[in-house]
Specification:
- Helices cover 48% and strands 16% of the residues.
- By secondary structure, it is an alpha+beta fold.
- The longest helix is centred in the last third of the chain and has 19 residues.
- The protein is flat.
- The relative contact order is 0.07.
Length: 505
């Protein structure tokens, strides 16, 4: 915690204004303001730290105030018997990051005492030689376009699929605004993905949620192949120099360093020297170790998908689900087993074990956390025709309810509504998008499922994106008609649909 944060915390706890502290210290209130906003920090040798500590120690006359200071500074209350409150505050404030004037003093002394050294070179200077390697050079934006396509051609010609390591914090103008080139680049990457190549891609996203969503939207066609592992670096900061590093391990690398807004003067290097390619691949992997997954895109029906959904269910936080079908966590086990048997699902036992774990976690969390499911009820005609889909990406195939099965699931939903006050079911006229469901938990993450081909699930745990989806779900619910959110009215609407189904079957 910085000094500015510590000072503000003390002032807030004891209700001290800038003016009051300034008067006690005989300084201008603007100096206190600068201390609090971090534009100025007193040095360790400054008498201000002693004065501040004495002021707060004298201000905290009551026991509850002393206790509050102990909690703020992290010092046990028992310590007050061994040392004064003034020393506790002084030690805490002094442990924050502060300028060290001794360093400046030493630096100035070195400048004052500096003498130009006498250097003599004996004999002829021998310059050490470097290793000569072959590489291709491409100049400017057009050269970068040609160089990247040639780089990818090495992957296309390789008989065995491997992985592509991609990173660039350059502006995307060099490919994004040339539609013909973008089509060719995107088509090449998708072709490689379809051939079994895996793509590790580090996005240079900042805290701006708009930038993150734009990046995901831009690369969505490639994401939908299921071959991309996207990452982001939480400590990324923009610099004047931008870097591009693309690597096909053991085959080729493409790299350049660009000064911002000087892309036309860039020198781009295409390297096939195996030793250099290996070193650049190691550099990429070291960088990747500092990154975090931006999202995970598991294969439908995979162990990874099962694990992600179970981990998501386990987190005891409030959340929302907006879907075209009721959640399997509210489905009776006997009903799920019957549905899996009717469809001939091969992973029946695995899915049942998965359901038992998820449904148990779901009910456990309902005792402490609120969960709201937003559901779009199907039309009677589609329900009677057996065209109502079941949301079960774990199965790996598309499943549909019979009319009676849907009725049984709705009856179970009513049971949950009547048993748990923390469980809400809201009825919506439409979902977020055709065939798409969204589940979000506060402080946990987001799961997005697309049921139509290509079937995909996206698991996102970036904190800013989670917050954005959570706010989106809240806004979506706020716009729902009031009768779709009233528990008694919702139960009545469901019961009417149940009666209609039974009256027509």
């Amino acid at each position: 915690m910085e000094f500015s944060q510590r000072l503000s915390l003390l002032m807030n706890v004891l209700g001290v204004s800038n003016a009051a502290l300034a008067k006690a210290l005989s300084v201008d209130p603007s100096l206190v303001s600068r201390w609090r906003n971090g534009t100025r920090t007193p040095t360790r040798e400054s008498h201000h730290i002693d004065q501040i500590a004495l002021f707060f120690a004298e201000r905290a006359k009551r026991d509850y105030q002393k206790l509050a200071i102990c909690e703020v500074t992290g010092v046990p209350v028992q310590s007050l018997e061994k040392e004064t409150l003034e020393n506790i505050i002084k030690s805490w404030l002094s442990s924050a990051t502060m300028p060290d004037t001794n360093l400046i003093d030493g630096f100035l002394n070195k400048i004052g005492m500096f003498k130009t050294p006498s250097v003599q070179i004996q004999g002829e200077m021998v310059l050490p030689g470097g290793q000569k390697v072959e590489c291709e050079i491409f100049y400017g934006v057009e050269g970068k376009q040609r160089g990247v396509l040639k780089f990818l051609s090495f992957a296309l010609r390789n008989s065995q699929p491997s992985e592509l390591l991609l990173y660039s914090d350059e502006a995307i103008d060099w490919f994004a605004y040339d539609k013909a080139y973008l089509s060719r680049l995107g088509g090449t990457l998708i072709t490689l993905a379809m051939k079994g190549w895996k793509v590790k891609m580090v996005h240079t996203v900042t805290r701006d949620i708009t930038e993150m969503l734009a990046a995901i939207d831009f690369w969505l066609p490639l994401y939908m192949t299921g071959s991309v592992m996207p990452y982001y670096n939480p400590k990324y900061r923009e610099h004047y120099f931008r870097r591009t590093l693309f690597v096909i391990p053991k085959i080729a690398a493409f790299t350049c360093t660009t000064l911002e807004k000087s892309e036309q003067q860039t020198v781009n290097f295409l390297i096939t020297e195996k030793q250099i390619v290996e070193l650049l691949a190691q550099e990429y992997e070291r960088f990747l170790s500092t990154c975090r997954p931006l999202m995970e895109i598991p294969q439908i029906g995979s162990d990874e998908l099962f694990s992600l959904l179970e981990d998501f269910e386990e987190q005891p936080f409030s959340g929302f689900t907006i879907s075209y079908a009721p959640s399997i966590t509210t489905m009776p086990g006997e009903l799920l087993e019957k549905i899996l048997s009717r469809h001939g699902v091969e992973m029946k036992e695995k899915i049942m074990a998965h359901w038992r774990k998820r449904s148990s976690l779901f009910e456990r969390n309902l005792r402490k956390s609120k969960m709201t499911h937003v559901l779009v009820l199907p039309s009677l005609d589609s329900l009677l025709a057996g065209e109502t889909p079941i949301e079960l990406p774990e199965a790996g195939i598309e499943l549909f309810y019979t009319p009676q099965e849907y009725v049984e699931h709705l009856e179970s939903v009513i049971f949950f509504l009547e048993k748990y006050d923390n469980y809400n079911l809201y009825l919506a006229p439409k979902t977020v998008s055709e065939g798409v469901s969204v589940a979000v938990k506060d402080q946990v993450g987001v799961v997005v499922f697309k049921k139509d081909r290509p079937v995909r699930m996206f698991a996102i745990n970036h904190p800013d994106m989670t917050n954005a989806f959570y706010c989106y779900a809240e806004e979506f619910i706020n716009k729902l008609p009031l009768h779709g959110k009233q528990r008694e009215q919702v139960i009545k609407t469901i019961e009417n649909l149940i009666d209609s189904v039974r009256g027509n079957t």
